[in-house]
Task: structure prediction
Amino acid sequence: MINDMTKGPPLGLIIRFGWPMLIGGLFQLFYNLIDMLIVGQVNGSRDLAAIGATASATFLVLSVTMGLATACSIVMAQFFGAKKEHMVRVTLASSIYISIICAIGIAVVGVFVSGSLMRILQTPPEIIDGATLYMQICVGGGAGVVIYNSAAAVLRAVGDSRTPLYFLILSSLLNIILDLIFVAGFSMGIKGVGIATVIAQVVSATLCVLYIAWRYPIFHLSLREMRPNWKNIRLILRIGFSLALQGLFIAIGEMTILGVVNSFGTNVVAAYSTCLRVQQFAILLHFTITEAFAVYAGQNLGARCFDRIREGFWKVTGVLMVLCLFSSVLVYFYGDSFVHLFITASDPNLESIV
Result:
């Protein structure tokens, strides 16, 4: 459903647009979370630590593609707000070319660089093979997540935040089923959860692309619009560069910390990895609201409604301050209970990790 956010109460529009993205973000976190939960409960804390040890390295690789997907959404939202449907389709073509290059790039990095990254991070010897294998599968087969993020960004640019959610829920459920089959049924361990994740991501990406082609005439490309528009691509890259650079700095910071954490042994790695998952859930709502505001601002920038952008900014800032306080209090008082969810009660290292 196309949603014009240049009219109506700013905060109400942002919240209505953002809640499906929030639920979608929860299910996207479930991919890696379910991998950790099932492996931690079935195989124990060592395999859980191996998967957790890949988090910052995987984010480093994917941060560039996530920044570019968001940039495509922002540029497309501006053209949509300005009622320039031809340029909306040109931006779609640009996003396709950028996604293909990104998918090839991360596949090469995943297959050939994962082992080196794990060694640079001083991953403990007892889990380094499992961590490398998991990263090779998930990043090497990361075309699905790249294409899904790009397709979801396209839909959000025109105000449709619900459709990506539906496909993400479906693929998350598929991921859980495949995890249980491969890990609990076939005893495939880390390899099984990695393969399950890749299959589920490819399914969600495929469904999202097919839906766009079927449901939205605005995205039906002519041969002329399929030609690379280098001015448009440069615009996306210019916006995406700052977003990708922000993600890279965050990832490098996390990798630096993880390199120190890894030197303390597997129990500390398992504890740190588990807490990162709790943190991701704690801050998810903040990121969702800011991403929804970016689309809102993009449409209103295209329509030259600058007063609406300022009004939306201050209202969103107030909401974020309240959310920060709430999530901080929740995690402070119930953090240990969250950690217990990840590791089987029979694990001899449980209390040390908690």
